[in-house]
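On clarity, I found the account of how folds are encoded harder to follow than it need be. What matters is that the chain and its backbone geometry are given together, residue for residue. I therefore recommend that a typical entry be quoted early in the introduction. An entry of this sort, consisting of the sequence and the corresponding backbone structure tokens, reads as follows:
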Amino acid sequence: MRELVGFRRFELWFAGGATFIYVVRRLLEEANRIDGMIEVVEQNRVSSATIWRDLAGYNHILNNNFPLIAGALLFLIAWYVFHYLTLPNWNSKEDDEKIRLYAGLSVLLVVSSVAIYYVAKLQVHYRQNEVGTTIGLKVYSLYRKRNVLADAIGMGIFLVGYELLCQLGYYLHRKARQDFRFISYLVWVPLYSFLTVFVLGGNLPEKLWQSPVFEILLLLAIPIQVYILQAYIYTSLLPYIRSFRTTEFLGRLLAGLLIWFLLSAMLWGARTYFRFPNSGLNNTLSILTLFCAVIIALLRRTSVKEKVALQTQVSHTSAELAGLQSQINPHFLFNALNSLYATALKENSEKTADGIQKLGDMMRFMLQENNRDRISLEKEVEYLRNYIELQRMRLDESHGIEIRVTIQEPDRDISIAPMMLIPFVENAFKHGISLRKSSWIFVTLTLDHTTIYFKVHNSRHPGLVNDPEREHTGIGLENVSKRLELIYPRRHTLAIQASEQDYFVALTIRY
């Protein structure tokens, strides 16, 4: 975004300048219009007393200048909040509550800009008799609830449509090669040319749903509908498509259909100020938007699957290369361990022999199973047990150290990506065991017919000098978190709670 700082500064100056020019133009046009109407009425021999009596309830500052200035200013603030505070952090996982607050504030400001205009605005028009002769002036209010709602939807479409085009321009600017870095101007030049023409000649919101503005709104509204629907289908329906018979999926499907219906109703209702005449075009376009949204969501899912598969393949290839570089003839190591195991048995050192056997099983797992895309949960649990038992061999649990392990054995064939559980246990032994202070580690693994539940809760003793695990970094929790995002997108939850005294990890994986 750094290379776009200058352009975003230009956007701010353009928006402020355009709003100022638009407001001044409208104020001058309205003042000249009313003066011209008074001259026409006077030419028809209407007395000044009649004219001022007709305008007795009209205050030009309160009923024309104020609503126009206040409405334009509120809409400018809505654009600023949405463009500079909401969208840049939309995909960020941090401060979700603040982002939702900004988005809600943008909607409120758009509605308020239209509402304050219609509530305070009074329109001056000719008063005519039965035969069409002008006999004076009349003042009437433009305020209708359906007008406010319809025009607020229209102004919202303008705002979101502008943002979508801007985001397209940003994307082209970032992704285009150096030779084509001006390709984004294919979006920005027409966009700002249209805005300039509108500022110099447009008139909103009274003529918002009239031609030619209506056609522009329609062109903007359809892709906005498609964008919202495909986002919902992609994030809330497709990840659960395999369990389409469940109540959860049916609820999400009904919610999606409701969103589609409301979007269609708002667009076509706003178009007709919510009188809803029967129109085959409305129904056709509504079905077309749903069809396009489904197609785009499916294409996105396919593209993401291919991307994840490629990233996973690259990650595994890198891991395999690193493993090959770090291996010192595995056959030699296994032969040496077998020799040590046999020697320990001859010397009646059963505990040492058991430890050597577990270490050999762990090494075999690392060399043979760890490079696969999926392994059985049973093998992962076996590795986990071996690791914990080896750690127990070096610790004296009778001196203030408690290690409690509760593992539910899988009763079916369940596959899982390798090394998803052990890093959390490694971290617990690294930071949770002290040879001088009371320490504890609780490991729990349970599962049901769809989900694996894994929890690790341990005491915390950072910076221990005497702990052999202090120099052992393991795979790293950040690495595991990234792998979970790649391999189990929207199919896992990872919650970590840390304090100075303890550390708690709760991981769920839908397999």
